[in-house]
Amino acid sequence: DDFASRFDPDQRRRTNSINLFSPSKINLFLRVTAKRPDGYHDLASLFHVIDLGDRLKFTLGPGRKDALTSNARWVPLGKDNLVIKALDVFRAKTGIPQYFWIHLDKKVPTGAGLGGGSGNAATALWAANELTGRPASNAQLLEWSADIGSDVPVFFSRGAAYCTGRGEIVEDIQPPPVPLDTPMVLIKPRASCKTPAVFKKFSLERASSADPRELLRSITEHGIRQEFCVNDLEEPAFEVLPSLKRLKERISSGGRGKYSAVFMSGSGSTIVGVGDPEPPQFIYDEERYQDVFTEAAYFLTREEDEWYRPSRAMEA
Ligand code: C5P
Prior knowledge:
Its EC number is 2.7.1.148. This is 4-(cytidine 5'-diphospho)-2-C-methyl-D-erythritol kinase. By secondary structure, the chain is an alpha+beta fold. The chain has 2 domains: 3-172, 2-Layer Sandwich (Ribosomal Protein S5, domain 2); 184-297, Alpha-Beta Plaits (2-Layer Sandwich), CATH 3.30.70. It is built from 9 helices and 10 strands. The strands form 2 sheets. Strands 1, 2, 3, 4, 5 and 6 form a 6-stranded mixed β-sheet that branches. A 4-stranded antiparallel β-sheet has the order 8-9-7-10, covered by helices on one side. Strand 5 (160-165) and strand 6 form a beta hairpin. Helix 2 runs parallel beside helix 3 (116-131), helix 5 (195-201) packs across helix 7 (234-240) and helix 7 crosses helix 8 (242-253). 44% of the residues are buried. Cytidine-5'-monophosphate is lined by residues 39-41, 43, 149-151, 166-167, 195-196, 199.
């Protein structure tokens, strides 16, 4: 494919900026099936995109450098931000020397297991393609996105996806038979989990023996139940962050929330409670939980909401 020849600066989008929603994800189950020689692990996981997300504004830049700004002080603004990495991948793959001004309005916590940074990267890839006159197909963007991180390709799925490999092999599935407006509560302590540290603590002997295809079939048939929401990274994450185990126990056992399932997302440190809109009581009761991030969220699929299509309301 000769992307550069298809790039005509005059054919760019007439508006030179777009404002986009950048969703996050949870893992309804996550099995780790093998340790690989390349340093990664093979996964089998049910990812679901959710409606907690950031806002990103992309503008065609006049110069030869990307410029990233953010409302959040803790967001890295250089090469270690996956948005910049995504734009570098776009330029490398297409040969199009276009740079951007980006503003990132951050809402999704980082180090949370919610794929916030990965979602931003997918949104950046999509936006760069859009603003340069769509030289690449969605399938190509999905393929390129695996170079940015293992959790990026799922953001080109329809929203509910069975992911294997290191997470980058994405298979769209029938969403679980629960209404999209099934409420969930996301609870994240201030402390984060670093993905490589969590994987380092993982050992195959401790993994669940559940067949992931069977888990997928069970969820599709019976809905989201505690016994299907297995996450092999929970035990290793609890070793990295011992207070997380107590947090999960307290959410499962106490308070107002009556969840049909409570589980950790990704490599942590977010604990998800599905099926009840009430946050656990203790978050208000106890001073030491004041730093806990709590949000309500809902499932999101592309049937319902083309999350990358700038709606009129979202247009800059
Ligand atoms: O692909 P990504 O850059 O998101 O992965 C970050 C780190 O997480 C990897 O360097 C690796 O240590 C760990 N990881 C893993 N197996 C995966 C995904 C991530 O071991 N499937």
